[in-house]
Description:
The chain is α/β, with parallel strands linked by helices. The protein has twelve helices and nine strands. Strands 5-4-3-6-7-9-8 form a seven-stranded mixed β-sheet, with helices on both faces. The protein is globular. The N and C termini lie far apart (about 55 Å). Its EC number is 2.1.1.181. Keywords: Cytoplasm, Methyltransferase, rRNA processing, S-adenosyl-L-methionine, Transferase. This is Ribosomal RNA large subunit methyltransferase F. It is found in: Cytoplasm.
Amino acid sequence: MKKTPPASPADKDQLHPRNRHRGRYDFAQLVQSSPALAPFVRTNEFGDTSIDFADPAAVKALNQALLREFYGVDTWDIPAGYLCPPIPGRADYLHYLADLLAENNGGKIPTGRTVRVLDIGVGANCIYPILGHREYGWRFVGADTDPVALNAAKQLVAANSGLTGAIDCRLQADPKHMLVGVMKSGEVFDATICNPPFHGSAAEAAAATQRKTANLSGNRRAAPNLNFGGQSNELWYPGGEEAFLRQLIAESKQLPRASTWYTSLVSKKASLISAHYFLKQAEALQVKTIEMAQGQKKSRFVAWSFLTEEEITARLAKK
Length: 319
């Protein structure tokens, strides 16, 4: 099977202009910052210095190096079998979210701990709160239904002094809910973020994981790697992404003033069409689709609010 060359600098230049990971990785600098990455760095068949992105240990070491070099996070790890996220793409979501908040704030990005963001499905990696706090100083609540993942996230926060007091991890005791049971009475957020499960069943998720591992390794028969697969709640939800978004939108309608903006990544175009239909039914006053480009992969998130433009502006003026 012919292998596809890694993303070129031109591909990564499609990332958000403030994204720290545009262009090729400087592996020499990353190794200097994080020597544990050194055993995984090699010259690939295309003559480029890189790592084997089909090797979960290599990907984790790269993440550890990126977090140390660019975000001052010295300690980061995940339990075996949990999702190991691509940091450049995760950072893009946050940068575009910052632009969204700036739109009703005179073009200025609101920063600091007065800005509060809820991460629905924070995961063991806690990556969005870590990046969001280190980039913009925002304060986060990270919610998850998995006690093991939540405990791992708490340990990451405790292990890095720069995150102290910035990230609160909460257990969602009822897996049927996203917001209800996590948002406290009277609590107000500036935004919610979410990277919903893409798949509708465990079998569908397993097949997708096997395809991803095979594509990365160039081996059609490669066994699925759990580090790329993630746990069940990270990968699938009954009814898939569309059903997840429908439930999230329904709960946001129940809590219309609890967050200035509600947002969620949307992987599938069909899910985006459905989300806009559900949002119309929910009578959201503001609905935006934010397009993002990450190399050959096109991504997007949908954002909605039950507040008027004037109400949004008034809230952000207090930050």
